[in-house]
Specification:
The protein is an alpha/beta fold. The chain has 2 domains: about 5-220, 3-Layer(aba) Sandwich (Rossmann fold); about 225-305, 2-Layer Sandwich (Alpha-Beta Plaits), CATH 3.30.70. The protein contains 10 helices and 14 strands. Helix 3 packs parallel to helix 5.
């Protein structure tokens, strides 16, 4: 896939001397879903603002589909839809007027069919004549997405799109995001819900203190840095690991009734079968087996600690 966004050596230093972005290099592929993860103050929103032309970088360059975001601002900005963290909507305006107004701001002529299709996709068509003040928080978030998509952009930035949204609505919005990807929209997502990134992102970029720590395919990252843990629950207490199992990385739980095996996800499943067979042959009665594996959130936290 071609790069639709190219960020090279971008820095942002404020008048106070605070360096919000420090030599950021990041390429975003056309049609992908990229999760930009980082703690509060890491530089996520500043980076998004720089790409969208809201913040001017101190140095470096940003190109959106070949357009320089500073020199060719109008052309680059037309390609981008932005859903901000804050819900800033005119409270007494109707939903459909709010969305149409956003489309007009980008210089596009009215398109009733497109707006109708968009509002239906976001489950807002039935609320089209409702005033913003009458909507729930989740519905207001949907209006923000509709505004961002009103001019049919190729790129969509979602800055904490499901903050304050209940679980049901969050999953519904995941579905909408996946549908947009199928239509070829490039999506950049920032979120504090790491399971959200794990669910919908294809690639992950982790930022901290204004620097990109890594950028990697999500599945590759989880395979490379993830671990699995198998807990074999036995009937009677055990004081030490049998000699036949001493070559494996096994531990015993505090209650002496679990044999625990932790291994990286690249390890062969044959080792696991061998361990289970050895446990049976040692005369230990297995009651149950529990498995857990590292989540993207675990990897994220560990990376920040390092």
């Amino acid at each position: 896939m071609n790069n639709i966004i190219e960020i090279k050596d971008v820095e942002k230093i404020y008048a106070s001397g605070n360096k919000a972005l420090n030599k950021i290099n990041l390429n975003i592929k056309e049609g992908e879903i990229l999760a930009l993860l980082g703690p509060n103050g890491a530089g996520k929103t500043t980076l998004i603002s720089a790409v969208c032309g809201i913040t001017v970088p101190t140095s470096g360059s940003i190109n959106v589909d070949g357009y320089d975001v500073i020199k060719e601002y109008k052309s680059s900005r037309k390609l981008i839809g932005l859903v901000p963290q804050e819900i800033a909507l005119e409270p007494f305006e109707k939903v459909i007027n709010t969305v149409n107004y956003s489309r007009n701001l980008f210089g596009y002529p009215p398109d009733d069919n497109y707006i109708e299709e968009l509002l239906k996709k976001l489950s807002l068509w039935g609320k089209r004549d409702s005033k913003i003040i009458e909507l729930s928080g989740g519905m207001k978030r949907r209006v923000l997405i509709a505004k961002a998509l009103s001019h049919n952009p190729k790129i969509l930035f979602l800055d904490e799109p499901t903050a304050g949204v209940d679980v049901e609505l969050r999953k519904d919005m995941w579905r909408v995001i996946k549908e947009l990807k199928v239509q070829g929209v490039t999506i950049i997502l920032t979120t504090h819900y790491i399971e959200e990134a794990e669910e919908i992102a294809e690639r992950v970029a982790i930022i901290n203190d204004g620097q990109i720590l890594l950028t990697e395919e999500k599945d590759s990252l989880m395979k490379r840095m993830g671990t699995k843990k198998i807990e074999v629950i036995i009937k009677n207490k055990i004081e030490k690991i049998p000699n036949e199992l001493s070559s494996f990385n096994l531990t015993i739980s505090d209650n002496k009734q679990k044999i625990i095996f932790t291994y990286d996800q690249k390890r062969s499943d044959l080792d696991i079968l061998k361990i289970l067979n050895f446990i049976k042959e040692s005369g230990l009665d297995i009651i149950d087996i529990e498995t857990t594996e590292t989540s993207l959130e675990d990897i994220f936290v560990n990376l920040l600690k390092e």
